[in-house]
Amino acid sequence: MNTLTFPILKLLSDGKFHSGEAIATQFNVSRTSVWNALQYAEKLGVEVFSVRGRGYKLPQPVTLLDEQLILRTIGEQGNWLSLEIHDHLASTNSHLMQNVSAQRHATCVAANLQTQGRGRRGRSWQAGLGSSLTFSLLWRFQCGAAALSGLSLAIGVALMRALHILGIQQAQLKWPNDILIDREKLAGILIEVQGDMDGPSTAVIGIGINLHLPENIKKQIDQPVTDLNSVSNQSIDPNLLLSILLVQLANVLKEFEQNGLMNLSGEWTKHHAYHLQQVRMLMPDGREVHGIVQGITEDGTLLVETESGLQKFISGEISVRGV
Ligand code: BTN
Prior knowledge:
SH3 type barrels; alpha+beta; Arc Repressor Mutant, subunit A; binds biotin; 16 strands; single chain; 5-stranded antiparallel β-sheet; BirA Bifunctional Protein, domain 2
């Protein structure tokens, strides 16, 4: 850990050159300390250009998360929220899951740089500084873990609402909880639940949204991906995105607590990229089942009409591919 690294990265977030000397003077340290701090940034995977005679710069300007700005943007509607913005975390989900019982209800933890992001089915979530909005929200439920099977679909609805508010009308859902644009992945949701099957229970809802993926990160991802920068004609401030999302998440979570998916399933289906489409379901044992998506049930199960009749697929067990 180098305590100078993030203060310097904040200075460099304007995307302009800053000389080693000017940075050293600003932080009252030696130029070697500046160099060491930026070496540590490189170790964390942050690319920093260093040009003799000009100094250091990031490949492009980066908008960092700002706790006060987010709280101001949410305004009074945010009274329920405990917000923590970290410069760097291995994983926002792991951070909350490490000590679930000590956390307050409705704690949101976001990281400007998440280095060991986790995805569903043992995958990783690749992110660099400013390339992805990465955060987790801890929510306590009276009901047990068994009643939360449809939660990830409800969260998908909150994401769709937030993206629509920001003018990203083309976003779609992919069962159980990916967000796609033109069949390329924009965002993912990882929900981890702790508690008894019949209650109470706590969910840590982790969300990653690609903002501006550099080529080196795209290359490490084994599926077609996109980012907001490629699909929106205006640049989207992650502070605004997180503020809007948190309000939409709270709305949807309250609705889900009351009625489960009952009042959300119609909206979910409307945005499902594969509704009434021919799909291939990939089973954990490698088998494939072909059929036409018919919809979802109130516990988030996907209904597919196959050769052998209507089959139900439970979230987390299979993956859907278009044919
Ligand atoms: C997936 O599509 O497989 C789910 C990806 C979830 C990624 C987010 S980023 C913030 C939170 N912290 C993590 O370690 N993972 C989730």
